[in-house]
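ingest -> validate -> predict -> emit
validate: passed (alphabet ok, no gaps, 205 aa)
predict: started
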Amino acid sequence: MPYPKKLLNDYETVALDLHPHWWYFSKPAVLLVASIIFGILARVYLDGGDEEAVSYLAIGLIVFSALWLAIRYAKWANTNFVITSDRIIFRSGVVSKSGIEIPLERVNNVLFSQSIFERLLGAGDLLIESGGEAGQQRFTDIRRPGRVQNLIHAQMEVNEARRFQVPTATVTDVPTQLEKLEGLLERGTLTREEFEVQKRRLLDG
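emit:
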């Protein structure tokens, strides 16, 4: 499910809302497939009491792995890695909830890592260094972490422009500020909606 809009601040927009990569399901999925194959082979190659005992074992493994997969899906559906115009949010939990919020202005560095296998899958980890008490936060099973890293940097630039450039603009430098905003729009750093909001603030100020 998407990140709840009611938890966003006023004028805050969502740039990215991700669930974990599908690799998150690998362990229970592999166990489920292996259990099914094990059950089929038991019926083909065994007979008598051995077949019955092994069949019960296979059924137990199938039920266990199916439940594990269902629980994993529930956790996956309720885990969100979100980038907004103001912060980075990680939220997880089906019944009880836990989360991390990092304001963009406190982000010092964003690193990503991928093994060769993860590059083939399009998955990886993100390490975010911030000025908060935690210092570093690692997020695993992120889809296309390189692109996510670039998006975080782009949102940081937009956030900085909004916090420092627009509020300090005076009547004499409004044209200069408009040119900067247009440059951000052309580079794709600002969306059209964000550009119009900043433009109205300049003109109204």
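Residues 166-172 have pLDDT under 50 and may be disordered.
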